[in-house]
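Hi again,

Forgot to attach this to my earlier email, sorry! This is the prediction with magnesium ion bound. I've pasted everything inline since the attachment limit keeps bouncing my files.
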Amino acid sequence: MKEFKVIEDFFKQQSYQRKDVIIGIGDDGAITHIPEGQALVTTTDTLLSGVHFLPSTSAHAIAQKAIAVNLSDLAAMGAEPAWISLSLSLPEIDKVWLEEFSRGIREHAEYYSVQLIGGDTVHGPLAVTITAQGFVPYDQALTRSKAKPGDSVYVTGSIGDAGVGLQLAQLKRKINNQEHHDFLVNRLDYPTPRLLVGTSLRRVASGCIDLSDGLISDIQHILKASQCGAVIHVDKLPLSDAMVASVDPDEAIKFALSAGDDYELLFTVSEEQKGLLETNLANANIQATCIGQLTGLAEKLELRQNDQPYEFSNLGYEHF
Ligand code: ADP
Ligand code: MG
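Structure tokens for the complex follow:
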């Protein structure tokens, strides 16, 4: 099967169509319309076999995770997703795999109202690169550089789950409770981009980032860009029921601090905006937990447990 046949059979007939796409798959480039008053946000992420997913991960999960991690970046910018492009490197043309993979893409495109508008298909080691684009009203994007000392630090949902999920998937850990096991592995394979959180934080949050490499690693990007420090209370980190039930408390904190792949949002809010934050979170039925405060000590991250210093050295996932 030739490259064009793969595109034709698996990607061209994508079901979700948007009115703002003038030309989608099939020409040399896609043409799209950007609404008046909106800024375009563009992000790219690659998933590599053996680095971002295990050889045993299903094609369906790989497809959906590739979309989710990109939409998570858009969420962290406060943007609403619109279009995705897919660059696919395949070691072979495996029709069953491609069927599952393209179904994963189609379902997520439909669910998140995004259209697949193009891509590239090449022969090589298994790698999936997605570029996602979306809109945010001018001046309302959430960035890393405008947080201030005194702002409160929040995280959504629960953290550390995907780290435990990875150990379960690698058979390095065992949990007898099937429901907890499945929950944790699903947090690894099927992350949820916090898009509603992102848009609810427009004009409310002073800074925002998604947690892909682990809390300790990711928060430093805000501290560096905003020239702030932070005090984080490890006893306040939000842990899932599955985590609490299956991992001992000290280890759970370590997962929550340093494991990646949760794709929750970490954001900062000034004292003045807290009322509006509470209202917006309640209206959107979003769970977020205050885990600490920013300080004036540039780039200094202090961890505390029950108000005592907490020693910790693991700095999260680094590729190089
Ligand atoms: P070109 O040689 O001009 O780059 P291609 O043959 O690579 O064109 O692609 C033909 C069309 O199919 C283009 O519109 C391209 O964006 C789209 N396309 C290629 N691969 C994919 C893919 N994996 N998913 C979605 N669209 C794709
Ligand atoms: Mg090409």
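The longest helix spans residues 59-76. The pocket of magnesium ion (ligand 2) is lined by residues 120 (CB under 6 Å).

That should be everything now.

G.
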